[in-house]
Amino acid sequence: MIYLICMKNHQITIFDLARELNISKSTVSRVLTGHPNVHPDTRKRVLDLAEKLDYQRNMIAIQLATQQSKTIGIIIPEILSSYFPYVIAAIQEEAHKEGYNVLISQSNESYETEVTNAKVMLDNRVDGVIVSITKETLNFDHLKVFQKKGIPIVFFNRVCNEMVVPKVIVDDYEGAFGAVEHLILSGRKRIAHLSGPSSLAISVKRLNGYLAALKKHNIPADPELIISYDFSKEKIAIYVNHLINLKNPPDAIFAINDPTAIDTIQIIKKNGLRVPEDIAVVGFSDDYVSALIEPPLTTVAQPVREIGITAAQLLFDQIKKDSSQWKTPVKILKTKLIVRKSS
Amino acid sequence: MIYLICMKNHQITIFDLARELNISKSTVSRVLTGHPNVHPDTRKRVLDLAEKLDYQRNMIAIQLATQQSKTIGIIIPEILSSYFPYVIAAIQEEAHKEGYNVLISQSNESYETEVTNAKVMLDNRVDGVIVSITKETLNFDHLKVFQKKGIPIVFFNRVCNEMVVPKVIVDDYEGAFGAVEHLILSGRKRIAHLSGPSSLAISVKRLNGYLAALKKHNIPADPELIISYDFSKEKIAIYVNHLINLKNPPDAIFAINDPTAIDTIQIIKKNGLRVPEDIAVVGFSDDYVSALIEPPLTTVAQPVREIGITAAQLLFDQIKKDSSQWKTPVKILKTKLIVRKSS
DNA sequence: CTGTTTCATGGGAGCGGTCCCTAAAATTGG
DNA sequence: CCAATTTTAGGGACCGCTCCCATGAAACAG
To answer: Per its UniProt record, what SUPFAM superfamilies does this chain match (chains A, B) (predicted)?
Structure first.
């Protein structure tokens, strides 16, 4: 049997299959897309030949013809901490179940990069996008574009308050409240808080949880003990040392997240103080590391997999529906205090 | 001014721009692709209108027309350990510099999934692919397809010996040798080795390095102390307990990688033994966690960023060249022993 | 036995670009 | 000032596929 195939680029097209079988490309297309109205014999012949010639469909052509990229985008501030990889992994699983690819971009906590990444997503015609903003993001025009163009968007973790779209967050307030109350109930009197940039809602909510817990137990909030920083590694040492050297130093530190808490512990130890005897430390997120460090970190666990799955589901809910039917739920997932030896 | 634009899907095309300016879409295309032969005035008019109407190029159409996806694929066994995210981040940086997108897929250490992922990459017509195989991968047909189709492929970390393509690895043998010699020089006599699946070259090389170090120092290799396991979390406990309970137990354990070493330490501690006093432990890779655990882990550091950058560069070298000019270098990067308190 | 459905297939217009080929306009040189 | 050359712009095939429409054959009902 002589194949008439002309394999430019080593690639076989439906046209090659059609010519070989002396049928039209429409029929081949019908077989390949699972369209019902094809004679079983024809279907078999096409499928057999496709298999035999190792036909590989061209998703790019399909994307162009169907006007959907079958791709969703993820825009996150960074990929290296253990929180995000877990969420990504969960999103990817859901996406693959739906037959979607995932384009991941990290903004490196830079607003500029986030804007660029959003453009790349647009260029690539993603069918939807899941976003967690950088600490610098104050203007949201680059994200509102998605709304304007009718591309579904879902936020998680670090959300944008001024956009009415689906969001997945955890009960940061409750989580922080519980963590701080735990410190109070274990006898701590002067509890400091290493907070994040006030631009982020999570910073504000966790701070409010902290303040509420103090208030409930009639402990006056001391502004000296509340430090808001920008997540830059170098500055943690400065702030922790500052706290330690206060004339009335704290006996506990509640950190905005686990990486901060872990660094805090290292610095306290470097100063010759003990954790938790001299200063207790509590973090937020239950990163993979937190159970392994010495002392193991008390922290507020987030359901990372559930966050990813929920975000993906909210996105696909929108992708599948007409935009007029979109809902904008805000899913608030529960956190869980994990008490370990650092407190 | 009345715009004639017909914005199906809220998207503006070059045709819309052309009609609006009363010129041909060829000219618009020329402007947008930076082709030189365009009158400066025309160029400005096009650019201005594009800006004004917020024209967004359609990468999918471009990909189809130019026959390149401007996307590279990464196939890795998992994304959650700290080794891979660092490599990925480095690859992504390089890719973005070249104007390429990155499609990441994790095989979850499953051969089946790896095969599926390879197909997805092919479907999406990636211009090249960077691969680290699963522990199960013994057949490489799904990867040889890339070669056959002329799609550049680069391996890193876990490479395929039977394929002659560029690879990026570290000097596993030397690294293991140095780690074990370090244990010997610090007075350890019975050094066990928790090795990986023998299907992986890294397992074999690290094992050989281990054996060579013993030999050099005239320590007979005891088969009882060499355990090969499949990276499954559950089994580490069994093997470590087994080692501890030998009538002649080891005084040191060299683990194939850091996660294993970290788990090993936890289990030793659970057994009421001390690290390093009773048993020293050494790992491989210098994961982010390793410095933070108690005791901090002695380990063989890998240049993760350099691995990613090198792999990406080798890939782009091939992508840019005609396949007849492809070279197949194997870059062997240096490891570095980081001595901490676990040994 | 004929009119109406249903089924199987072919034809062809997109999808949104690129890029080659050609033609007209502008520039240059002798 | 005209031929030769270079710029600038347009036309249209093509990338590989989908999907609507048309057509003819087969199946069915009256």
So the answer is: lambda repressor-like DNA-binding domains, Periplasmic binding protein-like I
A203 lies in the same domain as A86? no
Q: Is the pLDDT of residue B329 over 60?
A: yes
Nearest Cβ partner of B80 from A56, A85, A292?
Answer: A85
Query: Based on the domain organization, do B309 and B166 belong to the same domain?
Result: yes
- Phi, psi for A125 (deg, rounded to 5): 55, 45
Phi (first) and psi of residue B256, to 5 degrees:
-60, -30
Distances B187 to A305, B216, B219, B224, B279 between C-alpha atoms, Å:
45, 15, 12, 20, 12
Helices H, strands E: what count in chain B? 12, 12
| Euclidean distance between CA atoms B162 and B140, whole angstroms | 8
B98 assigned to some structural domain: yes
Q: How many domains does chain B have?
A: 3
pLDDT level of residue B10 (50, 70, 90 thresholds)? low
Q: Are residues A123 and A189 in the same domain?
A: no
Task: Give me the phi and psi of B192, to 5 degrees please.
Answer: -90, 160
Q: Which helix (H) or strand (E) holds A280?
A: strand A280-285
Question: Is residue A7 one of the residues assigned to a domain?
Answer: no
Q: What is the pTM of this model?
A: 0.93
What's the per-residue H, E or C state across A140-195?
CHHHHHHHHCCCCEEEECCCCCCCCCCEEEECHHHHHHHHHHHHHHCCCCCEEEEE
Task: Give distance CA B38 / C1' D4 (Å).
Answer: 22
Q: How far is A245 from chain B (nearest CA, A)?
A: 24
Q: How far apart (Å, rounded) are the C-alpha atoms in residues B285 and B338?
A: 10
